Amino acid sequence: MKIIFQFNSQSRGKWIPEAIEIAKKRGGKLIGKDYQVEFTSTRDKDLSRLDFMVGTLKASKLFIDNEKYQSPELSYLISLIFNCEYKDPNSTRGRGKKMCSGKCIYNNSQDIMTLAERFCEILNPVLKEDFPDSFPSVDYQEELNLFHFNIENLEWLYQIGLAKSTDKIDSLRISELQKDTQIFEHDGNFEKAIGKYVEILKIDWIGGNFFDWNLRWVGGLFLELERYEQAIEVYKRYLEFYPDDDEISNLLNDLYETIGTKREFSTIRGERLIKKITIERDEEIQFTTIINDKIKENYLDFLKYHKSILEGNLFKKKFSVYKEVVKTKSHTVTAWKNLAYAYLEKRDFQNAIKCFERAIELGSKAQDTWMWCAGSYTEIGDYEKSVELYKKMLNIIDYNYFRNYIFQIFYCFEKVIDNQTTNKAIVKDIIDLYEQLKMNSMMDEELKSETKIVELCIDSIKN
């Protein structure tokens, strides 16, 4: 069997440099801007690596015995099969067929069976060659059999969240199930979608990236079905895992009100939203700032962003989980950083500082970690420590965070001058910091465009 993997070497994909190294190592041919790398087995590890790195890019193509498969669905799905462990060729083919159908439906690209049958035409000879003695016969109609799930039975709520952080999570299985949820949701078959989400939740860990999202989503699907009692039970269980999620607490209160008053849930939610918007408008930041008018609009945008971070719910909702994680993963930067952001959203700046500093001690060079550590010192009024950290950041700040960095320092300055008892030497330190920042930006081609903003900040302070 002759397999050729082709990709665009000039693409902006994240893994292009690594893919090029593999192509060179395997004697790949550079034809124009495209690398072509030849393989003889579907189980070649370098083929698997190339698929992972660049397999989903639009320009990537797959050739099997000189026949080109250019369709994004086919190319992507065949490469997924190459990544399977091949312990069970029957299961492997089933996975590919299921994923193929899911992608087809989700993209509305063409008829399910047409694409699925074409996919099997390609895959059959591949598996026959790899498994001449055990290649099975499969009735592909089995893949279209209806999946049954009883949404009345909520026993599964206490069968989830049992996985531990040390358990090996079957990511491939989760990926398959996610495809199934897309199929059912696209068809409006929310009952069956819930069933597939439940399967995911049973094997996932509560501290994972999507466990909380998936459980919230199941609650949302029950709301779509207007099954409010079941939604209440789902959200109650959710709050057992994530008791700090104020959004779900409010949602649960609205559901209780719906059940108790028999009023429309959408009406109650709408009233809450209007009330929230009214409060936010009344409490809108009073932007009394001395910054130069030429950059005032940019600075006001920064202040809104700053406020949105401090009032966020992204990390706070998983606060209890992050506290447990640092007990077993106290050696990792991510564990401390997540907990720091949770404290930040809870406006517990003292504890946020401790966690950010622990992440920095462990070697974190992440600019947002340093910046929000300094920002937390600003919030508690320790301006000397805040400016000290901003100075240390001079060597790690880059274009992505430069504008925020400029305005974070100015925010600190405004806090300083609001404090009548503050040592005026801090203002001089801030000006010196800006002067150094100005020099750095003038010498860096990428940062030159920001020099004027730094100059206007300095003028604002001096005037």
Concise summary:
This protein has 3 domains: 3-132, no CATH class; 155-245, Serine Threonine Protein Phosphatase 5, Tetratricopeptide repeat (Alpha Horseshoe), CATH 1.25.40.10; 293-462, Serine Threonine Protein Phosphatase 5, Tetratricopeptide repeat. Helices cover 62% and strands 5% of the residues.
Describe, in plain words, how this protein is organized in 3D.
The protein has about 475 residues and is mainly alpha-helical. The protein folds into three domains: about 130 residues, no CATH class; about 90 residues, Tetratricopeptide repeat domain (Serine Threonine Protein Phosphatase 5, Tetratricopeptide repeat), CATH 1.25.40; about 170 residues, Tetratricopeptide repeat domain (Serine Threonine Protein Phosphatase 5, Tetratricopeptide repeat). The protein is about 60% helix and about 5% strand. It has 20 helices and five strands. Helix 9 packs antiparallel against helix 10, helix 16 packs antiparallel against helix 17 and helix 18 packs parallel to helix 20. The radius of gyration is 28 Å and the shape is globular. About 15% of the residues have low confidence.
Which descriptors apply to this entry?
3 domains; Serine Threonine Protein Phosphatase 5, Tetratricopeptide repeat; 5% strand; 20 helices; single chain; 5 strands; 463 residues; mainly alpha; 5-stranded antiparallel sheet
